[in-house]
Amino acid sequence: MSTNTETLRRTPWSGHADDAEIAHWSAIAQAVADTLATDALERDRANATPRTEAELLRSSGLLDLLVPAEYGGGGGHFESAFHTVRILATADGSISQLLAYHYFNQAGIGFYADPADQPAWWRRTVQGGWLWGDSVNPVDPTLVLTEDGDGYRLNGLKRFSTGSGVGEVIIVNAIIQGGTEDGKVLAFVLDTAREGLELLGDWDHLGQRLTASGSVKYTDVAVLPGDILGPVTDEPIASLLTPGVQLGFGNFYLGVAQGALAKGRELLLARKNAWFLSNAASYSRDVVFQRAIGELKARTAAVEALAEKLNRRFDAEVARSGTLTAAQRGEYAIAIAELKVVATETGIEVANRIFEVTGASSTANSVGLDLFWRNVRTHTLHDPVDYKKIEVGAHFLHGELQPLSLYT
């Protein structure tokens, strides 16, 4: 790989999304969300590999939103990407997650690859129409790379490999064992048809059923020099990728809450008559139900305000590129942890308590209101939110930052 980092920028993004850009991508995302909403429940129950949904993302242009325009991409900013994730989550949490992970898997080009090598990677992803899956779950047995000529051999197993079952490529993090680079961690990209790469298709969970998040087994998989993005380091700009992923989670949870509220409003307005102890003309005119839905709406609006602020800030932090300091990165990660806490709790609360205003009839399987709760309940277990609370508290009390990891 080239090492001409002195004359080229570390990351290809700069500036902010203007109103026209956000409106453009939001309109596309809404059109996709409207399509997904027509049969979200049926598709969830079928629990099939989301190939049709992946093609919808591809044909809409959303997959290449973050790819610089000079390489054939959409030339968008992260703020637009976060908006897109949120909009899709109002209709289909699974496909929202699939796209959110794709964005940061693909963005690994800008965070890990040498600047001189990035143009070729960007062109490859656009020309190939790649949806990027991942295989980086840090709590699984560690994948191991061993030297093999001028490349490596990869062995091991990774569960929770989101997008792997439907993506053209998978980004992988693995540690080198033995040789002159012993202990070094590399980020690299494998096509899913690579010999020795086995997609186990074992994802069958309560929610987020269409994220193609099954396990991947690697048996003597050849990793060639051209597959390698770069080393995984603690450099502030490179490690900013993880807070970005967490910010994507916050937007996803917010979108689920907004979707549950919209569905709940629809059901509440359709309810006839009123509770027999009420003097109201209808359930939607009953102050008991107005109070409940008003509380949920207000809390969701507060989360949205925080998300909007942090979404825009992400582009500013990324634009610092190689000048981003560890302190700046750490302080921003804490702000994102604050969002993660309130988005998690609000998403779960809204998806749960919306039943209080929609009544017993809304628990019918044909209604599918449970889909919002199942999706947000499943994904909010990705990493314990209590540890995010501890991160926020430790920083507020003592100015402490957590050690770098794939969760912080």
From TrEMBL:
The keyword Oxidoreductase applies. The keyword Oxidoreductase applies. Gene3D superfamilies: Acyl-CoA dehydrogenase/oxidase, N-terminal domain (1.10.540.10), Butyryl-CoA Dehydrogenase, subunit A, domain 2 (2.40.110.10), Butyryl-CoA Dehydrogenase, subunit A, domain 3 (1.20.140.10). Pfam families: Acyl-CoA_dh_2, Acyl-CoA_dh_N. It comes from the Bacteria. Signal peptide: none annotated. Residues 247-383 form the Acyl-CoA dehydrogenase C-terminal domain. SUPFAM superfamilies: Acyl-CoA dehydrogenase C-terminal domain-like, Acyl-CoA dehydrogenase NM domain-like. Coiled coil: none annotated. Residues 27-103 form the Acyl-CoA dehydrogenase/oxidase N-terminal domain. InterPro entries: Acyl-CoA_DH_C, Acyl-CoA_Oxase/DH_mid-dom_sf, AcylCo_DH-like_C, AcylCoA_DH/ox_N, AcylCoA_DH/ox_N_sf, AcylCoA_DH/oxidase_NM_dom_sf. PANTHER family: ACYL-COA DEHYDROGENASE (PTHR43884), ISOVALERYL-COA DEHYDROGENASE, MITOCHONDRIAL-RELATED (PTHR43884:SF12). This is Alkylation response protein AidB-like acyl-CoA dehydrogenase. It comes from Paeniglutamicibacter psychrophenolicus.
